[in-house]
Amino acid sequence: SSDVVPQAPEDPLFGLMAAYRKDTFDKKVDLGIGAYRDDNAKPWILPVVKKADEILRQDPDLNHEYLPIAGLPNFTAPSQRLMLGADSPALRENRVTSFQTISGTGAVHLGGLFLSKFFRTSSKPTVYVSNPTWANHNQIFTNVHLPIATYPYFSKQTKGLDFDGMLAGIKAAPQGSIILLHACAHNPTGVDPTQDQWKQIAVVMREKSHFPFFDCAYQGFASGDLAKDAWAVRYFVAQGFELCIAQSFAKNFGLYGERAGCFHFVTSPANDAATTVGRVASQLAILQRSEISNPPAYGARIAATVLNDPALFAEWEENLRTMSGRIISMRSALRSRLEELKTPGTWKHITNQIGMFSFTGLSEAQVLKLRQDAHIYMTKNGRISMAGLNTKNRMRLGLAKRRKAPV
Ligand code: LMR
């Protein structure tokens, strides 16, 4: 009976959001969830998304019918090109199968479910995730009964990448493990390998016959250049790896609640592409059908409208630069403010780190003190969503200092 259901803890991130909403202090600051905010701390509907929305509303043929199980073909096709590059050898050789998913989370889940059923070993492979990683990774893979382990990633000393640790960790993982990699703009640290380091990672992955699982939730946020942000994925594909990718459109289109995303499975060039892709797609279709039947239409239609139109696409790139540019200017503003205040420690990592987040190095006690004393909200691991800062509230950190909070 339901008497035996134990109480589970609240989701830390959504719990934080609820606590922020409840706080009645007028100068409270939300640096929690990774969702873009404009300079007035408000959600930003991308102008290109507004345009696409108007175009869709004028379409007399639009209806609310079911999408196919694999999703909207004119969404999944440009999503492949965006991720892999229009000239990708995998696309040319028809080695890719793509399913529209419930955003990035749904893509990670569908991939996890597929691998837990069909991965090449008889025993369940272990999924290696970076330490730290997006908290939900652990939960998603655990739910599909895949064991989880971690590889080192972040150096507390340098507040940058622990590359030697990462490489050694991947090397030490049992032959044929699944290695979860953040394609760009690592969450929560804001620290990515360089291209040269990615090449070394690929060598080790090849030696150990590991399977790369890329999570790409922030394409366009790391460098401001969509192709550059997909470099690691494209490099691994060019190296002939069989791999999969979870692609989210939540952040780069600001379509958070619409749940637009894609799962891509790229089969190895060594296989007979036509039959392998067909078999993989047939199993994904069964999994998708039993879980969600077919994906939601609206967000995918918006993204498709933009992705398939060169003028709108160019406008989207401009909107992306607006977001990434504002985040970069907030990084400099925060760093100079902390340095101006002679806050103990070094703050160079704030501007070295990239993407939506900064891993500040603040301890849990400091994070909680900031919340209590200064009404500044961030996750307990000291991650801040840079988009939560703006030209108005960045001075609040000075206020925190005067109140003898830790920064
Ligand atoms: C985050 O890490 O803040 C975002 O990816 C939102 C989420 O779903 O956790």
From TrEMBL:
Domain of life: Eukaryota
Domain Aminotransferase class I/classII large per the UniProt entry, residue ranges: 27-393
Family statement: Belongs to the class-I pyridoxal-phosphate-dependent aminotransferase family.
Functional note: Important for the metabolism of amino acids and Krebs-cycle related organic acids. In plants, it is involved in nitrogen metabolism and in aspects of carbon and energy metabolism.
Additional facts recorded: In eukaryotes there are cytoplasmic, mitochondrial and chloroplastic isozymes.
Subunit organization: Homodimer.
Name of this chain's protein: Aspartate aminotransferase
Organism listed in the record: Carpinus fangiana
UniProt lineage: Eukaryota, Viridiplantae, Streptophyta, Embryophyta, Tracheophyta
